[in-house]
Amino acid sequence: MVIKSFKVPIPQVTYLIKKKLWAQVLVGLFLGLVLGIFLGPETGIIEKDTRGIITTWLSIPAHIFLKIIQMIIVPLIFASIIRGLLSAGSVEQLRTMGVSVVLYFVVTTAIALGIGVFVATIIMPGSFIDSTSMLESLEIEETEQLVENVEFNFMDIPQQIIGLIPSNPLTSFMSGEMLSIIIFALFVAVAMISLPKKKSEPIMDLLESIQEITMKVVSWAMRLAPFAAFGLMADIVSKVGLDALVGLGTYMGTVVAGLLIMMLVYLIIIKVFTHRPILSTLKMMKEPLLLGFSTSSSAAVMPVSLKTAEEKMKVKPAISQFVVPLGATINMNGTALYQIVAVFFLAQLFNIELGTTTVLLIAVTALMASIGAPSAPGAGIVILSSILLTAGVPVIGIVLLLGVDRILDMTRTMVNVGGDLTACMFFDKRIKTNKLPADDKRLP
């Protein structure tokens, strides 16, 4: 028997690293992990202050990348939402499409919450950690600040609901209030549908130009993505350390297990309802998924998701330009699942028994909170505060999750992005739309 030696295809690897963004992001994540371990507290080679200076400089590309995305994401969402809504052709069709998409997002979020309850109840991650030893290291000042923020946000919910309708759209644009921007875009779209085509056509041309300009800016920002992934990973691992990650490994594993099950649900939807091959579809999705993992922001990935849906998956732009921007704002299945697991984890940690009524209340709160959650890094941990207050779980427990939240944030963002793309394929198969100019010309 002759055993052939394994040879690494160096030219092919070099091609991937040079030409494929997802390969560059993977390399950046791996190198960041290695450097983070080297700089981390376990090795003791670098002092804490010096480590902080190094990681601050390394994270500059990540901050620039996110700043550029934040700079153009508002006009991109506004233009995409209106052009997507106008694809309905009439107010009646617009109502049908809008209700269908929102209902789909609510149903899939409810499924994600059910999966979270299931895995947290079966695995019981909170029973694997000694709460007394874990709480000894908490900083009281930071916890008190979290409690104050939670009480404010929780008591202010009625006013926030009223405030979704923008009295001054420019203020919403400047502050990046995505739900208010979507509502304003809805009013504009309905008004444009009601007008004769001759009067609304110049605005349509302007919105198309805005889309093309923002996508060009995004293409420039994408060049920073591998360096952003490198800096963020090095920063996370150097600050948290491998020991802390292992200590909360069961909790992290429970969240990841739930997210994998949710991804399996997406694959079932893709196979059963869209009749697409799973492997080739996953191959198409890998770039936005990896970018979501490296940036922890659905909004940052939105332009890439649009290009992937239209150019690779051949989804009609009339569908993608409505579903993706809306999904990046309200379709937070990964975030909802993470929140429910975190509540159960902390309840088990503090020996608090959650009754059926409490679980239902938590689920409803998590559903509403995830829909309104900002599509930005770290938003999930803030929303979790109000859910803990609803469940009667000590908010002090959030401090235990801060160390590993960024890694889980990266993972759940992948699921959020995967959910947006799955929704695109689902509705591309089921909704017939009138042809837009965007259907003749793919996004640049």
Describe what you observe in this structure.
- The chain is built from 22 helices and no strands.
- The N and C termini lie far apart (53 Å).
- The N terminus and C terminus are likely disordered.
- It is an all-alpha fold and 444 residues long.
- 44% of the residues are buried.
- It has a single domain, classed as Sodium:dicarboxylate symporter (Proton glutamate symport protein).
Concise synopsis of the structure shown:
This protein is mainly α and 444 residues long. Helices cover 80% and strands 0% of the residues.
Features:
444 residues, mainly alpha, Proton glutamate symport protein, 0% strand
The CATH architecture is Orthogonal Bundle
**Strand and helix order:** HHHHHHHHHHHHHHHHHHHHHH
Specify the oligomeric state: single chain
The biggest sheet amounts to:
none
**Helices and strands: which structural class?**
mainly alpha
Regions with little confidence, pLDDT below 50 for 5+ residues: 1-13, 136-153, 434-444
Look at the structure and name the CATH superfamily: Sodium:dicarboxylate symporter
CATH-assigned fold name: Proton glutamate symport protein
Blueprint of the fold:
Layout (H helix, E strand, L loop, with lengths): L9 H10 L1 H19 L8 H11 L1 H27 L4 H33 L7 H5 L4 H16 L1 H6 L6 H7 L2 H17 L2 H25 L3 H16 L1 H6 L1 H25 L4 H18 L2 H15 L4 H14 L2 H17 L6 H16 L7 H13 L6 H33 L6 H4 L4
Helix pairs in contact: 1-2, 2-12, 2-15, 3-12, 4-10, 4-11, 4-12, 4-16, 4-17, 5-14, 5-18, 5-19, 7-20, 14-18, 14-21, 15-16, 15-21, 16-17, 16-21, 17-21, 18-19, 18-20, 18-21, 19-20, 20-21
